[in-house]
Design a protein that fits this description.
480 residues; hydrolase; transmembrane helix; two-stranded antiparallel ribbon; eight-stranded mixed beta sheet; 2 domains; Rossmann fold; golgi apparatus
Length: 480
């Protein structure tokens, strides 16, 4: 009898544990099973279309949630995956800053009340958040290239200032940094324990949100780093083009692309009707509302679960948001088809890609400097690079997006080096234009470095047409 009671008790306990486990998975409190590509089979963070998990039709709410990138369970990723006989040589990381306060406000409405102080016990939470604030408070004397030395090292306003990084943005990059630490330092020993300042290359634009995002990722990657070893370089251009920014043909492509965007807006009667309704609500001319770029502020409301603004004339609502977001998605689709943005991207991304392959080539020679490079940037930095690489199916860079170039050496053939390209943890190497056919002709699991070098040195200019074989000629060709 006693044995039977124990058996029934164990059976009931097992059933209870199974129920709890399923409940936790349902509410996303523990990770679910992993798909073959290393990404959760139910993940909402995929960048390439997936007929199994993607909505059957364009869903603006689904796309907006992806864009928000709200921190939740630990992200699974494919960074650092390689056959055992490959050695990781260097890593080059391009990030978009994390979640920020809007750059624009909807006219005649109250600004969304978002607190930009960092509070350890407030969601979203990260176990290193309090230590990050403490460490940043010790870095006031750090040496950064001007004008970065005048920027705050972490957000600290009870009511966010325009464009300021939020706690969500800090947590997003603490998570990115910790993920990269677990892979590149703990697993692959990319940097020695006594790493030196010249083994890092750090560069950011002159915005507090990009500097702070870079510092948050760096702190997750190298907790309690020595401030004396840290030096962020300042990049005046969002394209990170350094001394190669003057490019008339690139600007002509951009003008044509902006004209395409304008014509697409004119054809969208539902969009015009929506802007008209919103303009009446806030009592301003439609042109003024459109110029205020209301989607930027509406995304902040959406990502932070704050109600859209109301006036005595009514409320901006979710239907308005859906129409504008849907138009954004349609604009991205037409942008890929028309190819004008591709021309802009090939010229806009060339300088930073050229710097990257130069750094990789020095690493193949055995140089130990700049083994880990971090560029803290914007959506207008990452988007041209993605387009130039041929990643046409990649989604528009979300908050805290990361694009990573890995350089590997074959231990069995030390003179051979290969690259992997990853976007938000997904291996997209064989989706790039310079390596999409490689696996058809070679059994090697990675893309040869020479493919990327040839692409940057020659094929990017061939794709533009004309007779130019270098960046200067492509930027100044006549008759475009």
């Amino acid at each position: 009898m006693l044995f039977r009671n124990r058996f029934l008790l164990l059976l009931a306990l097992a059933a209870l544990l199974a129920f709890v486990s399923l409940s936790l998975q349902f509410f996303h409190l523990i990770p679910v099973s992993t798909a073959k590509n290393g990404v959760s089979s139910k993940s909402r963070k995929r960048i390439m279309p997936d007929p199994v998990t993607e909505p059957p039709v364009t869903d603006p709410i689904y796309e907006a949630l992806l864009y928000c990138n709200i921190p939740s369970v630990a992200e699974r990723s494919m960074e650092g995956h390689a056959p055992h006989h490959f050695k990781l040589v260097s890593v080059h990381v391009f990030i978009r800053h994390g979640d920020r306060y809007p750059l624009y406000v909807i006219p005649k409405t109250k600004r969304p009340e978002i607190d930009c102080t960092l509070v350890a016990n407030r969601k979203p939470y990260h176990p290193k958040l309090e230590a990050f604030v403490s460490h940043m408070s010790k870095g006031s004397g750090a040496s950064f290239e001007s004008p970065l030395n005048s920027l705050p090292l972490y957000p600290n306003h009870p009511l966010c200032e325009m464009g300021e990084l939020t706690q969500t943005g800090v947590v997003q990059h603490l998570q990115n940094g910790q993920l990269l630490r677990d892979i590149y330092l703990k697993k692959h020993k990319l940097l020695p324990n006594d790493w030196s300042a010249d083994q890092l290359y750090l560069e950011t634009t002159g915005k507090s949100r990009t500097l702070q995002s870079g510092l948050a990722l760096l702190y997750g990657f190298l907790p309690d780093f020595d401030w004396k070893k840290i030096y962020f370089r300042h990049q005046p251009s969002a394209l990170f083009c350094s001394g190669s920014c003057y490019c008339p043909v690139r600007n002509q492509y951009l003008e044509k692309e902006q004209r395409r965007q304008y014509l697409l807006r004119l054809k969208n009667s539902q969009l015009e009707k929506t802007y008209g309704e919103m303009a009446k609500i806030v009592d301003v001319p439609t042109k003024q509302l459109r110029a205020a770029n209301p989607i930027d502020s509406m995304l902040c409301h959406f990502c932070h679960n704050v109600s859209f603004p109301c006036t005595r004339n009514g409320c901006v609502d979710m239907e308005h948001f859906k129409v504008i977001k849907t138009h954004q998605i349609e604009d991205e689709r037409e942008r890929r088809e028309k190819k004008l943005y591709l021309g802009y991207s090939l010229l806009g991304a060339h300088p930073i890609l050229n710097q990257t392959i130069g750094r990789m080539q020095r690493a193949t020679e055995g140089r130990k400097e700049e083994l880990f490079a971090l560029y803290s940037a914007h959506d207008v930095t990452l988007s041209p690079v993605l387009s130039a690489l041929g990643l046409s199916e990649a989604r528009f860079p979300r908050f805290a997006a990361r694009l990573i170039f890995e350089l590997w050496q074959d231990r069995e053939k030390p003179s051979e080096h290969s690259v992997r390209i990853l976007y938000n943890g997904v291996d997209v190497t064989f989706h790039t234009s310079f390596c999409q056919d490689h696996h058809k002709h070679s059994p090697k699991p990675m893309c040869p470095l020479e493919n990327l070098v040839r692409f940057v040195k020659r094929d990017m200019f061939v794709a533009l047409g004309g007779s130019g074989t270098n960046y200067y000629d492509a930027c100044h060709r006549e008759g475009f």
